[in-house]
Each structure stands twice: as C-alpha cells, then as structure tokens.
Amino acid sequence: MNATEHGDDYRNHQTALKYSQQPQEDEDEELELELELEEDLERSAAHKTTPSSSLPSPQAAFWTHVLINASFIASWYLFATLISLFNKWMFSPDHYNFRYPLFVSACHMYIQFALAALTLALFPSIRSRTRPTAHDYLKKALPCGMASGLDIGLSNTSLKTVTLSFYTMCKSSSLAFVLLFAFLFKLEKPTYKLTGIILLITAGVVLMVSSETQFDFWGMIEVLSASCMGGLRWSLTQILLDKQSMGMNTPIATIFWLAPTMGLTLTLCSLIFEGWHKLWNEQAFFGDLAKTLMTMLYIATAGVLAYLMTVSEYFLIQRTSVVTLSIAGVFKEVGTIFLSTIIFHDVMTPLNISGLAITLFGIGLYNVLKYQQNLKKATLSEGRARDGSIVLTNRTSDDSKVYSKLKDDEEEDRENSEEEEDHAYHLPSARANIDREEPEGVDPLDNSVDHQRRLMLMTERLSSPS
Q: Which residue range forms the structural domain that includes residue 419?
C-alpha cells in the first residue's frame, strides 16, 4: 500500500469520525440548552415565591404611570397656555396687531425643525435607527404634516377675529373629531361610556363659553376647520409614533420629519392668502432695524414655546392616546379661560360656571374609568404571571424574544408544523437520520426537531400540569 492510499484511508477515517461525533455534539448542545431552561424555570419559580422580589402591586404601578403622565400634562399645560396667550396678544387688533399669523406659524415650524435637529445632534441616544422611505413619507407623513400645519395656521388666523373664549369653545369640538378619527383608524374602541363622557365634557365647555357676544362667522369656520384638522393630525401622529419602521417613534424625530412639511404648507398658504409684498412693507414691524429685530424676537420666542409644547404633546400621546390628550386638553382650556378673564377681561356668568362644573365632573368620570380599566389589566397580568403563563427570559436577548411567552398559539403551531419539520431535516442531527423513517407517536423532543422548536415544546411540557 503506497503513501497515497495511506493518506486516503486517513482522510476517510477522519471524515467518518467527524460524522460519528456530530450527533453526539448536537446532543450535548441540546442537553446544555435544556439544563439552562430548567435553571431558568427554577429561578422563575423562586422569584414568584419570594416576597421581596415580587412585582409591584397594580395600584403602585398605576400611580407611577399617573405621575409620569402628570408631569408631561403639566408641562404641556404651561407651554400651551403661554403660547395661546402670546398668540392672542400678537394677532389681536387691540394689542400688537401683527396681521400675518400664517407667516408666523411657518416661522415656528422652521424654528422647531432647527431645534429638533440640534436636539438629535446633542443627544444621539434618542435618534431613531430607521428613517421613512420616500413612499411611506408621501403616503403617511405628508398628510400628517399638512393636517398639522393647517390646524396650527387656521387656529392662529382665527385669533385675529374671535375672542379667546369663543376660540376655546369652538376648539373644544376637536374632541368629537379626535374620537371620530380614532375610531376610524381603530386607535380606540368605541364604547358607550367613553362617548358619553366626551359628550358630557363637550357640553360643559360649550355652556362655559356660551355667553359670547362678539360672534364672527368666518372666525368660527376657521376654528372648526382647525378642530377637524387637529383630530386628523393627532390620529395620524399616533400611527406614526407606533410604527418603528417610519423612524418617528420618538417625539423629537417626529418633529424633525414633520416640521418641514408643516412649514412648507403654511408658507404656501401665507403666500396665497396673506401676500408677502404687504408683509415687508409694514412700517410698524419692519420699519427699521430695531423694529425688525423686536418682531423677529417675538416670533422666535413663540417658536421656542411651540417646540416645547409640541414635545410635551408628542410624549403625552406616545404614553397614552389621542383621546386622553383631548380630555386633558379640556382641563387646559378651562385654565386658559380663567386666565383670559384676568388678562383680557372676559366675564364669567353663572352659565359659564355651570359649564365648568359639568366639565370637571366629566373629567373626573373619565379618570375613574381609566383607573378601573388599568387596574383590571394590571390585575389580570399579575394573575397570569402567578399562573405561569408568562415565562422568564433566556440568557440571550434573541432567545428572550423567542421564549418570552410560555404558551404559544396552538393554531399557528399546527399551521407551521409541516414547514418546521421540513426545516428540521436540514440540521446536522437530522442529516444523520435522514434515511430513517420516523415512527408514529415519536417523542416531539427528539433530535429530528430543530433547537428552537424543541425548546418551545419542552417549555410547554414543563409548564403543563402533571
């Protein structure tokens, strides 16, 4: 036998040894995974029986959630009230009398875009990992930006002709539009209780400002149109915030992507309806350098307030819903009306006070309803955890995503069983047994099933009652 034949025999021997050891290596790997899973199950059982490491009570979790949301609501109240009063002062003929609200609103959008870009540059951790495609931007982001721009522009335009109280009354109708679009886009489930509470709050706001004497028809049309656009705006915004692929799952990123569209929409409307040839000839605002700088300072101040208000709005809507935002907005409007009575000398009548009481009562009912719903959900979640319907995570982040649930959907498993079995034959352990027909009634945890499927089946077996 020559050297070549010896070499061939050696290579054949090594190949045979390799394939003979392959099933044993697969079995060792699977056994190691099984031991890890058993250890995780034991730690989970110990965790559930240890009082010191138990989950927080539903009441504590609810109030923690409430406190965080309340901080966003308070900041939103502050900035929104300031900008409402500032805009009324700036556009009212009785005060600063700047007659170009669409131009100002467009400037606000560009300021917000610049501030959002600066924030993303300073804090890379809040950047989104994805960005919208051109198709998604035109189909989803562009309508949201246009609706947002029209909402803001029409709202500011109406302040030239209507009082702040009348503006608040008409703006409260946005509750109905928000609810309509939330139901249309399936963001909220319509219920009689929710609808009744919203109607009650709306009726209270209408009564609260029903003594309006300086009625302006076109001003009312502008506010109602803004309310409709606002309802569409916030429903589309919630959709964008919930879609990770759009790259707008953070409030700052949402402003960064939407503000240019909003600014361009308002710029176009300003050019058509206001005429910039008149704007730059206004001697009271741009007559000299000092007046120009003062006017731009006013616009920039309102732009910063608008940015802070919008960030608070987006954080609030991301944590709750558009309906929650609108309900909280009613209370903000109540505070705005009180401030308008002090600053702009609006008069409160007994009818106004009655409407205020009804509004506060409706807000209280809504909070009670949300508390009961959240408490019920938290109780059910805790009960499921104690029953073993939620599994501990495995040792890697990828495994934790796969095994985060103990009980898989049985129908989905049945539909995908054939595909998984076909995939199993491509694994090394299956190749060793490919010529062997699997007997009927075989253990589902045998080596012919891939690791992920095997561990899921094992998890179900360990968690099922004996």
A: 390-466
255 beta partners: none
Return d(Cα 307, Cα 396) in angstroms, integer: 40
User: 303 with 347, same domain?
Assistant: yes
CA dihedral 67, 370, 210, 337 (to 10 degrees): 0
Q: What is the mean pLDDT of each run of 10 residues along the chain (466 residues)?
A: 52 53 54 58 52 63 81 86 87 85 92 94 84 85 90 87 78 74 81 83 74 71 87 82 72 87 93 84 85 92 90 76 66 78 77 77 75 76 57 37 40 51 47 45 46 49 47
Instruction: Please tell me the distance from the alpha carbon of residue 319 to that of residue 315, in angstroms, as a whole number.
Output: 6
Closest among 225, 271, 304, 260 to 145, alpha carbons compared: 260
Q: Single out the residue of 364, 339, 337, 368 nearest to residue 353, CA to CA.
A: 337
Q: What is the DSSP string of 26-59?
A: HHHHHHHHHHHHHHHHHHHHHHHH-GGGPPPPHH
Q: Quick check: 149 and 233 in contact, CB under 8 A?
A: no
Angstrom distance (rounded) from CA 133 to CA 169: 39
Domain final residue pick, 349, 366, 384: 384
In a domain, 380, yes or no: yes
Q: What is the dihedral of CA 18, 23, 27, 33, to 10 degrees?
A: 70
The residue length of the chain stands at 466
Distance CA 204, CA 285 (A): 40
- Same domain? 328 vs 449: no
CA distances to 115, 119, 221, 249, 313 from 126, rounded to whole Å, are 14, 9, 39, 10, 17
Helix (DSSP H) and strand (DSSP E) numbers for the chain: 19, 0
Which pTM value belongs to this model? Answer: 0.59
For residues 364-400, b (16+ Cβ closer than 10 Å) or e, as one string? eebeeebeeebeeebeeebeebeebebbbebeeeebe
